Amino acid sequence: MNALNKCLEKSGYFIIIFFIFFNNCSQAQEAGDDQLSELLDISGISITINSMEEENLLKLATEHITDPENALTRDEKDIFMQQLRSSVLKNQVVSIMKQELTTDDVDYLLHFYKNNLMQKLLKAELYLKSPDAAKGIKIYFKNIRDQLPSKDRISKVIDIVNAALSTERAIFILAAVKREKSRALLEFYGQYNEETEQKLNYQISIYQNSVEKNIRDDIRLTSMYLYRDFTNKELTNIYELLQDKKWIKFQVAYTDAITQSLSKALNAGLKSVLNYRKLPKA
């Protein structure tokens, strides 16, 4: 997690990866806001959203505005960051997810996350966000050079990562947010048209292919550290838990929601700045 945070500071791409670690709806009752907020809290997603620093999100959104003429003023940055507050993002996530999950889904998932093994996993994921994690990861990988985990253990961790579709979901989120950010920047410069959209789609496709290996390796290595205190039996049980259809439905809904929310926030931030610039100045 800290490795990814460092990546965010450098390139903006980490913001997303660790968001990953973790019927007939038209006839079913839609989940309520309070119910979904509780689910985001107990699943650890709220902590992830709250840990997003507005300054880093702003840096991610505006890293390509390099010409002094268009550089954001302090007032414009404040206006932009109003769209990036964690409370705004969480409300947007809840609003989108309630369209995908029913009351029965959320009730089931609240019980699912109270499972002792899931609670142990959430506690381990929470530690990854602590200041001590970077040092712990460094020591762990230094030690395993002398004594590598068994092939069986490595295989079990990789099975969990694959079952959770961690790499695929990370790439999907990164590509979607990058595309929306780039599109918003083209609009910001008045350069968005059919030709630039085609070029953008091609660039995003190239980007997805270029980052896949690094993201996959990063997630697998971090997962080896994440599961260091779990027994092989617990790893097998976690793998089985991740086959749960309602958990998969929840992850798909959350992936879609956080992608839409981040994209919307980045786009809205730039548009807010443009609208501000159109106001008459004293």
Summed up, what is this model?
The chain has 282 residues and is an all-alpha fold. The protein has 15 helices and no strands. The chain has one domain.
Mean pLDDT, all residues: 82
The quaternary organization reads as single chain
Q: What's the SSE pattern? A: HHHHHHHHHHHHHHH
Shape: globular
Could you characterize the architecture of this molecule?
With 282 residues, the protein is mainly alpha-helical. The model is unreliable at 1-15 and 22-27 (pLDDT under 50). It has 15 helices and no strands. It starts with a helix and ends with a helix. Helices cover 73% and strands 0% of the residues. It has one domain. The longest helix has 34 residues, at 245-278. The relative contact order is 0.17. It has helices at residues 2-11, 14-17, 33-42, 45-50, 54-62, 74-81, 86-97, 103-113, 116-127, 133-144, 151-163, 166-188, 194-226, 232-241, 245-278.
SSE layout:
Layout: H1 2-11, H2 14-17, H3 33-42, H4 45-50, H5 54-62, H6 74-81, H7 86-97, H8 103-113, H9 116-127, H10 133-144, H11 151-163, H12 166-188, H13 194-226, H14 232-241, H15 245-278
Task: Please name the defining characteristics of this protein.
282 residues; mainly alpha; 73% helix; 0% strand; disordered N terminus
